[in-house]
Amino acid sequence: MRKILCESCPTRAHSILCDLAPGTLGEFTAVGASAIYRPRQVVFAAGGPSEGLHLVCHGRVKLFCSDRFGHEHVLSVAGPGAVLGELSLDGEVVHAVSAEAVVESQLCFLPRDRLVRYLEKAPSVAIRLVAALSGELARARRHVRDLALKGAESRLAAWLLELADGASSANAVAAAAAGGARPANGGLPVQRVGIPFSRREIAEMIGVSTETAIRLLARLRERGAIAIERHAVAILDAERLARIARHDEVEA
User: Fold this and answer.
1) Residue 144 sits in a domain of what CATH number?
2) Among 101, 126, 208, 251, which has the highest number of CB atoms less than 10 A from its own CB?
3) Does this model's pTM top 0.90?
């Protein structure tokens, strides 16, 4: 995969760079450095120094921590527009979690000192960065809320819809990289969604055991919402899946 420039990125509208004037966008591009990460390539490791922020341009990045036995525990998966890392202005700060590319991904690294100097001259971008970080915090809180208040089947349905939405963005990026136009159908339903996660990782992200995750996938299949394929899920009824995610459709 070749790098996609900010000026032609189809997912820019979902990031802190949306609607920036060409001059301001050019200044921002000079601040950071973009890189392509292969699947399973580490972006940063827990405990390592955080020297800036990472902006996910396209792809998917897994955030996880490891226990004392070396077992990984997936916390979340970040998609295009997500801002990753910790930023401190008055001292050293270390990464609380590790980040690893799930699929081939492009990220832009924004070094702390250069980013701060740029934000001092571009308050509109600073406001958007605050909004993006607030969004990440809100997503984390919703995840905690859902773990406490939603049933496991609803959490799985919501996770599948989120994954499908990410697949739609990835298709748009692939079309842009190939020089084609962005598909008109940019959202759901997505007919077939690749699942680049093990059953154990899926279980960790929705807060259940591996056996329960397998049973819930089979249940959604029995209810006609999805079809399970090898390393993929076909969404047959996106509306019903959305109702299950909202808990509008009671789990019998």
Assistant:
1) 2.60.120.10
2) 101
3) no
